[in-house]
Amino acid sequence: MTEQQKNAITLEMAGESVGRLTLNQPETRNSLSLAMLELLDQRLQAVSADASIRVLIIAAAGPVFCAGHNLREVQGQLGDSAAQLALFRRCSEVMQRLVALPKPVIAQVQGVATAAGCQLVASCDLAVAGVNTRFATPGVNIGLFCSTPMVALTRNVHPKHAMEMLLTGEMITAHRAEQIGLVNRVVDDELLAEETLKLALLIASKSSRTLAIGKEAFYRQGEMSLADAYDWTSEVMAKNLETQDAREGICAFVEKRPPQWRGE
């Protein structure tokens, strides 16, 4: 891999215990080619193994957050069903890795996030968008329904809102995305990085062990029946109480002092 290819996605510390992963190919509108997906997967694995990172921000360089799959690459594979299936499966694997990552992930979104780019936003745990950001799943406009982006989208927003985006392919505003649950906060564009980092630092001040337990429980219980979810999360909470950080947190609260987290 060349230095230029390695720099297509950068990883750095943005603040204490906060990592920032930046899509860095503005010339391709940060499109998710197979090479970009492979590199993104590598970066996420590195974040997972790095104990110094408690929260991850995913940002992008240039005027576009992510324009989805690289359509020139897709065009070059027309007629090669095996290659196209491999591309969509690899993308799906990366999105699932985001969900499985034992650390909260915040999308810092500016400009435009479309198709698989919108899927990337929806696959993150939280999202902060600049006020002028727009979102769409426009595959229907080119005869390619956004079926894989639909998976993440429908797990974020009400089915009727998701279906409207998928059937019309129209852009929606950042405020509309906030209304339907695709993003958590909308801020002035010039404050986007600052406000996203503030949110990340707030979350990073918590116990990393507790964050990992909570994130896994959040996604797993959502797939269960109500009774099963309560039964399983009761076990999760009981086991959580056995951790060093839970004991420290309760003692610190009773003793009216800041907790000293050990991640254990």
Automatic annotation (TrEMBL):
CDD domains according to UniProt: crotonase-like
Annotated signal sequence range: none
Biological-process GO terms, alphabetical: fatty acid metabolic process
One of the Pfam families matching this protein, by short name: ECH_1
UniProt key word Transmembrane: no
Keywords: Fatty acid metabolism, Lipid metabolism, Transit peptide
GO molecular function: hydro-lyase activity
Family per similarity comment: Belongs to the enoyl-CoA hydratase/isomerase family.
Function statement: May play a role in fatty acid biosynthesis and insulin sensitivity.
Protein name: Enoyl-CoA hydratase domain-containing protein 3, mitochondrial
Organism for this UniProt entry: Marinospirillum alkaliphilum DSM 21637
